[in-house]
Design goal:
Elements lengths: L7 H14 L7 H19 L15 H22 L8 H24 L19 H20 L1 H8 L8 H20 L6 H21 L3 H8 L3 H18 L12 H26 L3
Length: 292
């Protein structure tokens, strides 16, 4: 008995049908793991992301801030120390004057932008629910949160300046961890929650940085100014940073309230970051200012 040869398109159709009928349990473990990872990624970074900020610079994928951080660590621990071997330290005084003043101005701009967009002091104890609309105030708030993130990226260059000036003692684990972790936490804030309760750490940190960079600017004027006016202020700057972290940890429990609508990813990333930074700052303070 002979059989008529089937057209090629029927063969393809049958093959595809059979493939679709193969049970999921029989697929390779690697394929299933890839599918699960893709679904999990989309669930976090697509479904729950703020659609307004997705197209903004550096916001399309978590690989972008992670790449920045990896590049930062490579430069800090390998490239720049190797580059400075056998070289005299750079002075960079003019750059430091401009940089510190620019930081102070930028922090004032962020505080003004957030308060002008609706943030009020009572939101410290009464959570401000995020506005995800395209309302002008909501968009301006999100832009301020993104600008804060961009400022944290720029602050990575401070470590580069320390190395170029051969101030290696200032490139401490506290300094490197603080800068790297803050970049990623700020990115997560823009990605998932650019407004609402995320305004609190941004405003507090901006106030602290106004004090800190004003101190740095005055310090850059010369050793005479440092010895005469700034020596007693130096430990106070660290105390202010510690107080900031304590305030954030005291306020953190309200983020778990459903009415505040803070994404879990932001809570479980930033709260441990606050705790680790607090421990590192306390250890730094004890070593630097409590010596007998």
């Amino acid at each position: 008995m002979t059989y008529a040869k089937q057209p090629l398109w029927i063969t393809f159709a049958l093959d595809n049908t059979l493939i679709q009928l193969i049970p999921i349990a029989r697929r390779s473990k690697r394929v299933r793991k890839m599918e699960t990872a893709t679904e999990y990624y989309n669930f976090i970074f697509v479904t729950h992301a703020d659609k307004r900020t997705t197209t903004w610079p550096l916001m399309s994928s978590p690989l972008l801030p992670l790449t920045l951080i990896c590049g930062y660590l490579f430069a800090v621990y390998h490239f720049l120390p190797k580059y400075m071997t056998g070289r005299r330290p750079y002075r960079l005084k003019g750059y430091l004057w401009v940089y510190n003043l620019a930081q102070v101005v930028s922090c004032f701009v962020i505080i003004y932008g957030l308060t002008a967009s609706g943030w009020r002091i009572h939101h410290l104890v009464d959570c401000q629910v995020i506005d995800l609309s395209n309302n002008p105030n909501a968009i301006r708030t999100a832009q301020c949160v993104w600008f804060y993130f961009a400022l944290k990226v720029v602050e990575l260059t401070e470590t580069f300046v320390f190395i170029l000036r051969k101030k290696y003692k200032q490139v401490s684990p506290l300094h490197v961890f603080h800068h790297a972790s803050t970049v990623f936490c700020a990115w997560v804030g823009v990605k998932f929650y650019p407004g609402g309760m995320s305004s609190i750490p941004i405003i507090l940190n901006s106030i602290v940085h106004i004090v800190m960079y004003s101190y740095y600017f005055l310090s850059s004027l010369g050793p005479g100014v440092q010895r005469k006016w700034l020596q007693p202020i130096k430990p106070i700057v660290t105390r202010i940073q510690i107080i900031q972290l304590l305030i954030l940890l005291v306020l953190a429990p309200q983020a778990f309230s459903p009415r505040c609508a803070v994404p879990d990813v932001l809570i479980y990333l930033c709260v441990p970051d606050f705790i680790i930074n607090l421990i590192l700052f306390l250890r730094f303070y004890a070593r630097s200012y409590n010596k007998k």
